[in-house]
C-alpha cells in the first residue's frame, strides 16, 4: 500500500510563460469586456449608448459661434452656417475674464495671477516632498502672509506684523521650554504672540505706515469674484481645516473630560447645521454681536465659517483613520519611551492620515464645491456671476454654455485633487501590512 | 507548542545573576473594571535573571509584564524598576519605558517606516542620539539579529520571524537594561520560531535581564533560571526550571504541565 502512494520528485520544474490568451491586449479584453455572453452584450450596448450621446452632443459643442456678442447674434451665426442647434460660445469669450476675476480692477489682474503662481510654488514642496528641495518650505511658511497682501493690497507692515507675532511666539517658546517645561513654553509662546497682536502690533504698524508707506493699492472685498474667490475660499478652508481637524480628532479622543466634550460638542454642532445657515450667520447675524462700527470683512467671515465647517468633517474623517490603527501601534510607540506628542507625530498621525487620504480628499473636494454657496449671501463667485450675466439683456436666457464652462473648471480642479490623492496613496504604499 | 529542540550548546559563562535588584513588585493588584486580573503579586527580579512566566491563557501573565512598563496601570501596590517607582508621573514612565525593552506577540513594528527607521526612531527622538550614531547602532544590532541586508525594506516585506527579530533589534537600540517578551513566538510558524528563540538565547548569553511570557518550554528549561507559573491572576508556583518541570508542587501546575508536555 505505502509503495503505491510513495512519490519522490527528482527534478523541479522551471517557470513557464502564461498562455497568450491571458496576457496583453487580447487577454485584457477577454477578461474585462467579453468574458461571457452577458458581459459581451453589456459592452456592445454601452458602446452604442456612448456613441449616440457623442453624436448628439458634439455638433452642439462644435458650433461656430465664438464671435457672437449677444444671443441673437449667435442665432444668426448658426443660421448663416446652417448648423442647426448649437452652443452660443460668444458669452464665454466675452465674459471669461469676469468669471475668473469678478470685478477685480483689470489693471491689477497681475496680483491674483502672481498670487496663484506663487501658490503653486508654495504647495510644491508640500505636495511633492520627494521631488522638490525642502528649502522651498521656507517660502511655503511665508506664503500665508504674502497671499492676502497680494490680493487685498494695503501696507506691507500689516502682514509683516502678523508674521512677527508668530516669530515672537516661537522665540518665547524656545526660551521658556528650554528653561522650564515644554507645556509652559507653549503657554508662553501663545501669550507673547497674543500680546503682540492685540496690544503692540496695531500701534507699531500704524507708526511704520506713516513713516514708510510701502504697499499695494488696496482692493475691497466686494470687488472679489469669480474663480479667484472660489479658489481663495477653497484653498484657505482646505489649508486650515486639516490641522484644525487633526486637533479636534485628537481632542475627541483625549482623556481630559472637558477637552473631549468641547470637541465633541463643536463637531456635532457644526455637522448638525447646514453650511448655508452658517453663511447666513456670517453675513448678517455676526454684525449684530459685534460692537458698532467694527468692520469685519465679509470674505474673512465666510472664510472662518467655511473653515470651521470643513474642520468638523475633517475631524471625523481623521477619527476614522485613528480608529483603524491597531492598538499595537500605540503600544509599540509607548514601549519605546516616546511621549504623547512624539508618538502622535511620528507613528500615529502619519499612518492615520494615510488611511484617511480618500476621505480627506473627498472632504477637500466637497469644501471646494461648497464655496459656490457663497453666492446666496451675495458674494459674486462663478455662480453668482452667472446670474448677473444672465440678467444682461444680451445674454438673457443663456444656460448651458455658462454652467457648462463653470462645471468644466470645477471638474478640472476636483479631478486634479482626486488624481493627486491616488498618486499619494500609491506613493505611500509600503507593502502589505 | 511543546518542546522545541534547541540544537546547540548554550554558553552560560555570562549568565550571572547579580545581587542587584532590578524589578520589585510589592503587593500589586489590578482590576479590569470589576474583574480582578492580578491578585497580590509579589516578585523580585535581580539583574541578570532570565524568568519565564507560564500559565493558561487568561491567567494574567501578559498583564503582569505589561504592568512593568505601564502599558497597563496597576491600581494598588508598588512597582519599582531600577529603584524608580511607577506612578502616574509621566516623566518617570517615559524614563522607565526607554530603559525597558519590550517585544510583542504581533511585533508592532511601524509599517510606514523602513526597518532602519524603525530602529533609529526612538534613539534619535528619545535619547537625542545623533542620526549617524543611531544608524551605526541600528546596523550593529540588525547584524546581531542577522538581517542587516533588509535594513531599507519595509516591515510588510519581511517574514514574521524576520519582523520579530527586527522588533528585538529595535528594542536593543535603546540599550535597555531589562527586556520584556510578551509571547514573542506565538504568532510564528515553527520554522521561524527557532530563529527568534536563537536570537533570544544569544541575548541571554550576554547577561540581559529577561522576563518572558512564552509557551516554549524548551526555552524555559534551557535558558531560564526561574520559571513562574500563574493561574487566575496569581503566582501559583515558582522554581528553578529543573525542579519546576520534574517535580511540580501544586496540583494546578501538574495539570498544566501534563497538558502542555503530554503529547
From TrEMBL, chain A:
Keyword field contains Transmembrane helix: yes
Enumerate the Gene3D superfamilies for this protein: MetI-like (1.10.3720.10)
Pfam families cross-referenced by the UniProt entry: BPD_transp_1 (PF00528)
Where do the ABC transmembrane type-1 domain residues begin and end? 227-421
Alphabetically ordered keywords of this record: Cell membrane, Membrane, Transmembrane, Transmembrane helix, Transport
Cite the PROSITE patterns for this sequence: ABC_TM1
This one is known as Amino acid ABC transporter permease
TrEMBL record, chain B:
Residues covered by the ABC transporter domain: 23-257
What this protein is called in its record is Amino acid ABC transporter ATP-binding protein
Q: Which Gene3D superfamilies match?
A: P-loop containing nucleotide triphosphate hydrolases
Keywords, alphabetical:
ATP-binding, Nucleotide-binding, Transport
Q: Which PANTHER family match?
A: AMINO ACID IMPORT ATP-BINDING PROTEIN, PHOSPHONATES IMPORT ATP-BINDING PROTEIN PHNC
Family designation: Belongs to the ABC transporter superfamily.
Presence of keyword ATP-binding: yes
Keyword Magnesium listed: no
Alphabetically, the GO molecular function entries are: ATP binding
Name the domain of life this protein comes from: Bacteria
Q: Which SUPFAM superfamilies match?
A: P-loop containing nucleoside triphosphate hydrolases
